[in-house]
Amino acid sequence: MQRSIDLGAASVVVRSPLREFNAQLDLLYRDHSQAGDSGFADVRVALLPGPPWRVWGPQVRLWSEASCPFDPYPLDSALPLFEWGTNWLLAQRLNAHVLLHAGVVAREDRALILPAAPGSGKSTLTCALHLAGWRFLSDEFGVLDTESGLLHPLLKPAALKNRSIDIIGGQPGAVLGPVFAGTRKGDVAHFAPDRASVAARRRPVTPALVVFPRYREGAALRCEPVRRAEAAMRLGLNSFNYRKLGPVGFDAILRLARTAPAWEIEYGALADALPCIEQLFGKAS
Amino acid sequence: MSTHPAADCALLLRGLHEALEIPEARWDRVLRLARMTGLHGRLAAANADNPTVSERVRRHLLSATRMADFSARMLDAELRDVAPLCGGDFPVIALKGGAYALQALGFARGRFVSDIDLLVPARALRTMEARLHAAGWESAALDPYDERYYRDWSHETPPLRFPGHFLELDLHHAITPVTGRRHFDPAPLFDESLPIAGSRFRVLSARDQVLHACVHCFQDGDLALRVREIADIDGLLRSFAGTTGFWPGLVERANALGLGRPLWYGLHFARSWMQTPVPQEVLSALPGPAAVLRRPMEACISLALLPPDPDRPPGLSVRFARRLALARYHLLRMPLHMLLPHLARKAWLRTRRRTPDGANENAGGGP
After folding, report:
1. Which range has the worst mean pLDDT, A6-15, A67-76, B40-49, B219-228?
2. Which domain holds residue A171?
3. Both A81 and A136 in a single domain?
4. Cβ of A69 and B32 within 8 Å?
5. What NCBIfam families does this protein map onto (chain A) (predicted)?
6. Which of A43, A77, A93 is the last residue in one of the domains?
7. For B162-183, what is each residue's pLDDT tens digit?
């Protein structure tokens, strides 16, 4: 079957005969997917089973523009391939914007940006904040509009890894897809944002605060301001296309660093990090 | 919403020259074909100020423009870094993308560049390579077989790379493979080459640029980007054809260098796909394929080189046509007694290198 998914800043059309995969999409994109073709899409993919003679270890391939840009995955891992593959394709095509590698959540159209390297706990923190009442905009891409300086939502499910799966999955209200064990990044499960966040996916937000999170097991809470120049550098480093955008990216990042104060927090427990962030956000307004 | 890919491709090629007024769903198809053929930068350059496009389409065009700007900046930086190594003791000719940019040709706007191609006389090849090495460019580490393939059979050195740079540098000493059927002594190319004002690089003469583009288009291995090569031929012809004596000079040169056939193909497909104004008497004066073969040849080349329907895996006929085109490419590159062992070795290596997972993903980077 074919469906269109409206993510906010971009749209995806996906086609697949795989029943289980479609059921997983039904769950994770329950509020923003519809059957059929929307007429225009930023990314179009088909997830098709590999050759039928591969009886031992059947595979699934992601087709985009009549070719397979990635290696096949095991047949039951169509969802991680779809998530990973569409992220990669979106990153190639959304260069009208600066793409920050960041989680973004908001309160009343004011955004908190969580830029971070893999392993720093960005996804876990983004989901925890969302479950604590913040609006979810994105987990992977902070879509910064170079013309308006606003951030656009890109409502893809958050990819939770390893221990985060239980930490977030155990909280009331959390909706998670199935756990895919032993992928390249370890165990992965996808967290679905809530209905209100999805409904607001066309409403951009103003950057209000930047927090560089760093999770370290057993660490006591530490929270320090980051100077503007340094924040700009680090935002640029945590971006998919900063270098390629040249002067356009430089101007957009500077503008962001000038508007939104930046902090760095190190934490060992979400229970420490959340109140600290709430407090910083309150002060930033 | 499926329109025929050939019709969409014709629209794309028209869109390289003029602003398109088409519905958004049609843009969806044209943008995809543009990405498949690497022409999205040029499409965006011609449609940057098109007031009829929707906001979503405008964003895609803007995205392509920004990536093309990046490519142009990287090309400029690389040329600026290599320039001091051109000492004036032998000519260094920029080929293809580098040359189009240096001459500021109209169709270079939005044209993506993935590597820099330089042509030096064969006697100066080692000297130029040594200078590049001394300045920090590194040759890809190759096994002795591949090294020999490049050195003895090809017309270029193994690709050079400067750590941290985006573009690769290919150093050529000829424009056709040494072992190929169409190989010729490149000395006349240097004799006719032209200086670029304010630059240490030279470029081929106008007619040699056209011939090189034709040779490259029909004698190179990567099929997906061939439409782009035809668009280059079209761009060159539109830039140069106004000069007096251009057409007779082009035919004369092609025949003298033994490149009449590739030129016929280049002109024929530029005219047929992009309505490039090519006089009929020019085509008639060239050694085209035999009349009975033209139709099947035309069908086969179109299938192999035009992008297939982006919505489905390529069909049997497309795959067959691509096989044929690839076989032809290999046969032009080296004689059978060399080709068969070469292909056997490649096939054997491929079975050995096949790993269950991962390899080409890492190349892509990304999230």
Report:
1. B219-228
2. 97-284
3. no
4. no
5. HprK_rel_A (TIGR04352)
6. A93
7. 998 989 999 999 888 766 777 8
Amino acid at residue number A162: N
The whole-number average pLDDT for the span A205-223 is: 95
pLDDT of residue B203: 98
How far apart (Å, rounded) are the C-alpha atoms in residues B31 and B26? 9
> Is B360 close to A70, i.e. CB distance below 8 A?
yes
Is the pLDDT at A177 greater than 80? The verdict is yes
Q: Please state the ipTM of this predicted complex.
A: 0.93
Q: What is the CATH number of domain B5-352?
A: 3.30.460.40
Total number of domains constituting chain A: 2
Chain B residues with CB within 8 Å of chain A CB: 1, 24-25, 27-28, 32, 35-36, 54, 56-57, 59-60, 62-64, 66-67, 69-70, 73, 224, 307-314, 357-361, 364, 366-367
Cα angle: A109, vertex A114, A117; to 5 degrees: 155
Residue in chain A closest to B32 (alpha carbons) equals A65
On average, the pLDDT of chain A sits at 94
- Chain A with chain B: Cβ pairs closer than 8 A: 91
Q: What is the 3-state secondary structure (H, E, C) of chain A?
A: CEEEEECECCEEEEECCCHHHHHHHHHHCCCCEEECCCCCCCEEEEEEECCCCCCCCCEEEEEECCECCCCCEEHHHHHHHHHHHHHHHHHHHCCCEEEEEEEEEEECCEEEEEECCCCCCHHHHHHHHHHCCCEEEECCEEEEECCCCCEECECCCEEEECHHHHHHHCCCCCCECCCEEEECCEEEEEECCCHHHHHCCCCCEEEEEEEEEEECCCCCCEEEEECHHHHHHHHHHCECCHHHHCHHHHHHHHHHHHHCCEEEEEECCHHHHHHHHHHHHHHHC
Q: pLDDT band at residue B363, thresholds of 50, 70 and 90?
A: very low
Query: Strand pairing partners for B117?
Result: B95, B170
- Of A42, A211, A191, the residue nearest A111 (C-alpha): A211
